[in-house]
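Q&A log
Question type: sequence-to-structure
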Amino acid sequence: QTPAPLLQRMATIVEKSMGGASGGLYSLFLTAGAHSVMASVSPASWSAALKAGVASIIRYGGAEPGDRTMLDPLHAATEVLQALEAGTDDPMAALREAVEAAENSAQRTASMAARAGRASYVSTDRLTRPDPGAQAVAIWIRAIYNSLEKSLS
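Response status: OK
Response body:
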């Protein structure tokens, strides 16, 4: 059994339960990612799932990396995992670097101009903190890493 059905169920739940665009975007992200872990579960398939989810958000959500959205930390984590995928024998070290990239990217949204999402309607001088959606992504990516680290030790 793979986690694909779980991701698909989560996609349905967030689409129905979350307000704003985030529910739809998370649903797209999870649905696209589920396809990558249907046949096998490995660090490479999870990396592919993250990449597919990010591509889905870009395609249907209209945001690009650097637009001060939840996409920024997702994209940063994906880029790190893709770069490290072939050259590491330690998937947890690669995941740790991806988590740190996501957290740093989320913090950098504080100084970005909002070109997409709800923040794009707010005056730039009022946007002094990190994007909440980006912060949420950094938090759940860190939680996944911490859970995996604990279960493997």
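Response note: Residues 132-152 form the longest helix (21 residues).
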